[in-house]
Amino acid sequence: MRSHRYKLDELAQLVQGELIGQSDLVLNGLASLEQAQPNHIAFVNGDKYLNEALNSKAGALIVTAELKDQLTTHHNFIVVANPYLAFAILTHVFETKVLKRGIESTAQISPSAIIADDAYIGHYVVIGDDCVVGANTIIQSNTRIDDGVEIGKDCFIDSQVTITGQTKIADRVRIHSNTAIGGEGFGFAPYQGKWSRIAQLGSVRIGNDVRIGSNCSIDRGALDDTILHDGVIIDNLVQIAHNVQIGENTAIAAKCGIAGSTTIGKNCILAGAVGVVGHINITDNVTITGMSMVTKNISEAGSYSSGTGQFETNHWKRTVVRLRQLADVPLTKLVKQIDHMQAQLESIESTLKSRK
Amino acid sequence: MRSHRYKLDELAQLVQGELIGQSDLVLNGLASLEQAQPNHIAFVNGDKYLNEALNSKAGALIVTAELKDQLTTHHNFIVVANPYLAFAILTHVFETKVLKRGIESTAQISPSAIIADDAYIGHYVVIGDDCVVGANTIIQSNTRIDDGVEIGKDCFIDSQVTITGQTKIADRVRIHSNTAIGGEGFGFAPYQGKWSRIAQLGSVRIGNDVRIGSNCSIDRGALDDTILHDGVIIDNLVQIAHNVQIGENTAIAAKCGIAGSTTIGKNCILAGAVGVVGHINITDNVTITGMSMVTKNISEAGSYSSGTGQFETNHWKRTVVRLRQLADVPLTKLVKQIDHMQAQLESIESTLKSRK
Amino acid sequence: MRSHRYKLDELAQLVQGELIGQSDLVLNGLASLEQAQPNHIAFVNGDKYLNEALNSKAGALIVTAELKDQLTTHHNFIVVANPYLAFAILTHVFETKVLKRGIESTAQISPSAIIADDAYIGHYVVIGDDCVVGANTIIQSNTRIDDGVEIGKDCFIDSQVTITGQTKIADRVRIHSNTAIGGEGFGFAPYQGKWSRIAQLGSVRIGNDVRIGSNCSIDRGALDDTILHDGVIIDNLVQIAHNVQIGENTAIAAKCGIAGSTTIGKNCILAGAVGVVGHINITDNVTITGMSMVTKNISEAGSYSSGTGQFETNHWKRTVVRLRQLADVPLTKLVKQIDHMQAQLESIESTLKSRK
Fold it and tell me: Where is the UDP-3-O-[3-hydroxymyristoyl] glucosamine N-acyltransferase non-repeat region domain (chains A, B, C) (predicted)?
């Protein structure tokens, strides 16, 4: 393993922070406050971590100016406006990167494929006819790139990935292991009591800086393409059906499923396990909370939800009994009726009083 | 890539439609109305696409007789009763098919496996002892077929698939990439505070014309087999647990999960992300809408649902507050009480009136 | 295929049961009551299977003493206190085990990796620098073990698995096909309207006797590790996000998702498709029923639920109409108001009576 050793002033410079303390302190890791050792740097993400920071063994801390003054147990700091962002930057410094370049002898590459000289193609990778792999792109072992797939530069494709359906991938795209891209969309025409398969002729287009997790399925379009625009980030086990379009910088958490031909706008956030039906539109800047079911267009930015959090099971069972009665309870009419009855009662009482 | 060029009269014949216009018009693609160019044919799926069709650049349109008369901007048509079905048929004509046959030199095939001469076995495929692969079946690269698995003819198995557990697969079955078939069912006996593994001895049987998407898990049975009957179609990321049986022509959309030993009938439709508990029966011709939870037998054909669509999040939060109160609100009793009180009120009012 | 032939007295001894009947009866399979033939042994899991047992063709039955007396159609028994546990034990006897040992010629093993002599490494497996594979561990074909991963003894890793992120795996761990372990956690810092990737520097630690199904994603931690403690069992298509910790002997059914930094205690059971939000704690001995959403800490052992089972769709639609009104219906206040009105009514009626 390659060693990562930096002096505190080097790290301060990388995050454009102010160095306080011993500039030549050598640090060889980034760690959590709890796990950090004297050779590690850690970051303090706000007031609520103050106690943890005071007790941390970290050799140096990334903090705001306000926090620094309270951390009397420490002497070495990098002071920045946004410690979380500085941490995000330093993760890249301490990351173990894939340094290999070239094509492993066991990779099977079609003679018509064009592979950049400084790409890396791992063992047992299979690359089909007319494929393109751009500069500095890494394809890990056992992955399969089918005919006509094009991949840009500076991409990272992990192992056991299948890319087919003539998918076109732009630059700086990351695809994690065991993901299937460009597979056949789920298109069938009912015919004489059976399902008649519709071969899928569209493709998948993936923009710059897109990130796709492991075990995802992103299907090719039926006729037009499935499209992930620049900056889309997708977690693990996500289903993107044929002809879905996802706008720039939208984030989709694990286990979401987007049904066919749905369009999602820019800068949206779908929390975990959200389901979205097919053939609808969701506008820009929409947040959907976890496990929600989206069944209709969303045309106004905002936050949307469905489902409920946990109930103690006996409470929940009694609630469900009531829910099953609810359809036959005309709630708003009852509320009006009760108000009306209340008025009647008061009128009767006043009549009775007057007749005393 | 193989070129697909057809004259309009050839295409009309393939879908048994009536040709209107230029019979020797050459078309080399099937496209959506919006994306079609003059060398493409498109289809018009009903009245609601009339405007799109009028503005389409498609060289020819597949339409019904009624629609044709309104499409004054176009001159080349194939007239059929069901344009969607004609489109489904033509997708097969324009599809890029795998034409390779034979066994790639890097495939590892057990000497006791029987591979049909005109099958295709891709690079780095591993096929175990006593396996059978039928005529015209295609197995893409890096897939693994474990000992004792049998696959019929005209099947398509994409890359990174694992088939184990002595699974038996009939003819014309399609299995998409990264799917796991025949894996060990989740069977454990609780014993002295720990989980004691139950080795799974059953298998998986897959009928003719079954289609399974990518990233699915279909487990082998504990003792008897897990069974997918003829014509079952399954989308991506679907879990089929041990000893599940699914009836003919049932369709299961993405992200569904069927727990162990459940039986689902024929011609059912499970929309996306439906969950079905174990050890229940669902009869034929049942539709379950998206994200529903099925916790009990369904013995009558029909449509079933649970969950709700999205609420604006603040509305939803107030709704959940009420839901948590609901268990203690005797709804139907209250409705009766209110009715009774209303009657009492009216009786009192009439008494008061009579005593005036 | 290796033959499994045992005499009835051998099987009785293996499960420490009492043999009744023909001690030298040869049995070559374990089967369900329904499918069993005279050369099979079956088990009777309680009274409710009595009729099935009476009609079974099984050559021998595993039963309790009470059940035995009622099974007048049978003569060969193994009598035990817990037939289900005896069955669990015998599945291991009849299981077809992987007997191969050694390294297939096509496996790519880094010179710095240490592989135990009696491990099995399948075709096209790729093992990176500084890896360790322990004694009697089986790694099936096409799996990839990335640099720095360590695997203990007696483990079983099926095909198409990817293990990366310097994951450390203890002994007797089973990982099924197409699972991704140690992939990058979904960590991004929002920055200037885009998502800035946080490289993940933590790892995954997996205890003894852990079982992970197929198509699972278990991500490496951001700084600290993601941890599965001893005896955890996980079904298929499960998402375990970065920095999750799962306590001993907790069982997680298929399609669950646990969001980042959540801690789950010991001996918990999560039924199918449960979702748990990030950064919460669930204590020991908690059961979560199927498809529940857990949004808050659970600090008391017990059973928790959300969602509802299926409604007939028209009933459900009317229910949802009411649910959407519910936010504006002050339920507990109304119940009090109705009680109060009832009291008022009674007081009025008594007044009227007294004035007659």
Answer: 24-92
